[in-house]
Amino acid sequence: MSYQQLISRRLETDGPIRVGLIGAGKFGSMFLSQVPTTRGVEVSCIADLEPARARAACESVGWTPEHIGATRFTDDAQAMIASDDVDIVLEVTGHPAAGVRHARKAFDSGKHIVMVNVEADVMVGPLLAQEAASAGVVYSMAYGDQPALTCELIDWARSAGFDVVAAGKGTRYQPRYHASTPDTVWDHYGLTPEEAAAAGMNSQMFNSFLDGTKSSIEMAAIANASGLTPAPGGLEFPACGTDHLAHILKPKSAGGVLHHKGQVEVIASEERDGRPTHKDLRWGVYVVIEAPNDYAAACFSQYGLAVDDTGRYASMFKPWHLIGLELNISVLSAVLRGEPTGATESFRGDVVATAKRDLKAGETLDGEGGYTVWGKLMPATDSLAVGGLPIGLAHSVKLVNDVALGAPVLWSDVEVPASSEAFEARKTMEDQFRGRENAA
Questions:
Q1: What is residue 439's predicted lDDT score, i.e. its pLDDT?
Q2: What whole-number distance in Å separates Cα of residue 231 and Cα of residue 96?
């Protein structure tokens, strides 16, 4: 049954789906812009640290005064989650510790949750997914964001009988970006600080897109939801356009660049010398598949797929993603079908805080997109073996040891807070999933 048919049935029996939104930034605003034209979905409450900002966001995306007047605005997310007029929660803060609190409150309240907050999901997602299952609610990735869209391609490929060789997304990348800070980020984007401020662009958030952290987080999320795994050395960011996905993103043993079959990888939209990659996939996602037999391989070419020189490897991709504009798909899937649009099911990928420069004992880390560390993708087995500090916990913690440029920050290198739900949740997750990193 289609979503529209399910919505009609829902409206006849229970009325519209009532959404509680936490965080009215860019992603949240994109979702809000679609609400007035989405039949069967309404936002009953928006929780934001600055309720006036959330109201202004509704105005900026075209909500009518009547629509705004029918919505509650609050700075108390916990109370909103527990309220009777919320059927599903959208967690869009991007703050890992807050994400853990909000998810657990949703579970306690019997509410489905769409975890747009990928940072929290990568930090403790396996544990949260386990807790959601025990509570009988849906814990979902956000459709429109790249991890969920990539997982959809992976599921399509496997369901059609193909082996998945590689999957991931495109992005802008140069090795020097790993050292980028909020002070230098706009130079790389070709903007002045004044232009960025006028557009409402947050320098630390955009720096996390550039310095490799966000790419690592998203690939870890895909690995943990799909069973694919990172390469031992993390992301390589090979420059690759859509015509050459099947040529490049296959194992080295088959003439490609991958460490192994079944790998997550991000492709660069520009060559290392700065030239644009032909037919780049900067805004999209992809999957590379292998034909299970000669007949299927012949069909690849017959039906126009871009294949490698053997004809056995082929690719499918989605050139763009619309982020919050597509988020209603997750809402409808969770409430009407009881299904997530992608969800963590194992602990295979992790993102470890890595020094952007030589760090000294006594310094305080400033987290994702900041001046001190960036997040590097690692296989979970390797992260646990070295005792790596997850990037989601590398904010406002003090170093007790020096950490050299390019080295991972370890649990033993930081002063762990005496009481922190996020730290405790991560330690619980590590204890429960240690030795199960490759479990399906």
A1: 56
A2: 25
Structurally, at CATH architecture level, domain 3-144+324-337 sits in: 3-Layer(aba) Sandwich (3.40)
pLDDT tops 90 at residue 197 = no
Token pair for 356? 């952007």
- 179: amino acid identity, one letter: A
Q: How far is CA 284 from CA 108, 260, 289, 406, in A?
A: 36, 23, 17, 29
Percentage above 70 pLDDT, the chain: 99
214 contacts 275 by C-beta, under 8 angstroms = no
What average pLDDT is seen over the chain?
96
Return d(Cα 389, Cα 123) in angstroms, integer: 10
3-state SS class at 169 = strand
Cβ of 356: how many Cβ atoms within 10 Å? 18
Amino acid at 198: A
What is the architecture, at CATH level 2, of domain 349-433? Alpha-Beta Complex (3.90)
- The CATH 3.40.50.720 portion of the chain extends over 3-144+324-337
Phi/psi zone of residue 212: left (φ > 0), alpha (ψ -120 to 50 degrees), beta? Answer: left
Helix-, strand-, coil-residue percentages of the chain, each rounded to 5: 40, 20, 35
Residue type present at position 124: V
**What residue ranges of the chain are covered by domains with CATH 3.90.1210.10?**
349-433
